[in-house]
Amino acid sequence: MADVPIALPPGLDEQRGLGPDWGVWLDRLPRLFADLLDEWELSRDGDELWYGFCSLVAPVLTDDGEPAVLKISFDGDDESLHEALALQHWRGRGTVRLLRADPHRRAFLLERLDRRDLTDVWDLEACEIVAGLYPALHLPALPQLATVTSYVDRWLEALATQPRDIPIPLRYREQALSLGRDLVAAPAGVGRIIHGDLHYENVLAAPPGLDPERGAWLVIDPKPMSGDPHYELAPMLWNRYDELGGDVRGGLRRRFHTLVDAAGLDEDRARDWVVVRMVLNANWSVEDAQRAGRDLDAEERAWITRCIAIAKAVQD
């Protein structure tokens, strides 16, 4: 068996503060990484380690020398429970290709894409690229997937029980509850595979030599659910927010309409989902502070302000 080959990146190790389950996972992650290298006959390809909010990713070589990446996700994250299932179902059409998986250990061997993402692409061009990827992703949902509506219904109930004095304007909370309940009750609220977290950094460039029919940009890191394609837009609005400068409203509306028009979506339904998602996002920050028994910090208040600005912009 190989020696434990890694020290965890400090940014990932900081997730211990999220709870004891994280600490347990992080403590055994180096050993799990080493075990997977042995079992899957992989070798490290350099010393670089990448990480996301709840995953560790490393460039590796397969036993026949092909470049790939080994990804291990936090096993307490139910949103990534069926990541391998969705990637297998997409078969590399519009997405990274899955080479091997151990869903029980949340371990994935993936083809290696270029590290370039859509962050440095003009935001409206990036919106057109992402909208062009939607059809490949939004296939009929697999029966194993949890529904978007089951999550949203629970989140709306939590919002409804909040006291009146939380720092989210009451009219937006009431609007989100009304719109959200209608969206949850509608038959169109489920039925298609939804990525769940599709934004600029979760779309990578295809490497040279890849089949051009698969496209120049490919999606990574799904949080697959059964839902409504109109649910998908909001992350494209809240990411790269600081780039909007002095024309926040105009910039957000341009992104929103570019996504809707390029994807052929229903504008009203897309707008309703954006409003609901942004108010729920704001409420999660409030809940975090409430659970910790503290006041909101400056970063959380700024995030709530951003969420309400986005909900307002798509409606004005």
Account of the 3D structure:
This protein is of the alpha+beta class and 316 residues long. It has 2 domains: 10-111, Phosphorylase Kinase, domain 1, CATH 3.30.200.20; 118-313, Aminoglycoside 3'-phosphotransferase, Chain: A, domain 2, CATH 3.90.1200. Helix content is 44%, strand content 13%. The chain has 10 helices and 10 strands. It has helices at 10-13, 20-39, 83-90, 123-137, 148-160, 170-185, 235-238, 248-263, 267-292, 298-313, and strands at 43-44, 50-52, 55-61, 67-73, 98-102, 107-111, 192-194, 203-205, 217-219, 225-227. The strands form 3 sheets. Strands 1, 2, 3, 4, 5 and 6 form a 6-stranded antiparallel beta sheet that branches. The protein has a two-stranded antiparallel sheet with strand order 7-10. β3 (55-61) and β4 (67-73) form a beta hairpin. α6 (170-185) packs across α9 (267-292). The longest helix is centred in the last third of the chain and has 26 residues, at 267-292. The chain is globular, with a radius of gyration of 20 Å.
Provide keyphrases for this structure.
globular, 6-stranded antiparallel beta sheet, alpha+beta, 316 residues, 2 domains, Aminoglycoside 3'-phosphotransferase, Chain: A, domain 2
CATH class of the largest domain: Alpha Beta
Average the pLDDT over all residues and give the rounded result. 95
Runs with pLDDT <50, length 5+? none
- The CATH architecture of the largest domain can be named as Alpha-Beta Complex
The CATH topology of the largest domain turns out to be: Aminoglycoside 3'-phosphotransferase, Chain: A, domain 2
> What's the Cα radius of gyration?
20 Å
Task: Please count the beta strands (DSSP E, at least 2 residues each).
Answer: 10
